[in-house]
Amino acid sequence: MLSKIGEKYGDILYFVSRLLVGLLFLLHGLMKFSGAQPPAGLFLWAGIIEVIVGPAIILGLFTRLAALIGSIEMLVAYITVHASMGLSPLANNGELAVMYFVFFLVVLIYGARKWAVDDSLAKNASL
Questions:
Q1: What pLDDT digit, counting tens, does each position of 60-76 carry?
Q2: What share of the chain is helix, strand, coil (3-state, %, to 5)?
Q3: For an engineered disulfide with 94, which of 77, 79, 82, 110 has Cβ 3.0 to 4.6 Å away?
Q4: What are the pLDDT digits (tens) for 33-52?
């Protein structure tokens, strides 16, 4: 039964996931720039990456590259910020970094799929 649901709605669910995760990633980036003090160092770079990768994932634009960059950022964030407080994501508040990392790995493997700018670019390139 679940496989039939997956066959029928899989593309829609993947698209909605891409939209929601991309939006949340973008919002995390914008949040870094909304404080009274501007971000600096790795925090600044994280914000820039999130503001670029989030919309790219939403639009499905250079999706695999965006997912690669996002996954690397989340791995670096986990190692530099969270792992020093213990390896368990539950103990070091790194659950979100791990979930983004895994999501970006899935997108890196599958690409944008349907309803993406990448799809339109590929069709136009073949003309």
A1: 999 999 999 999 999 99
A2: 80, 0, 20
A3: 82
A4: 998 898 999 999 999 999 99
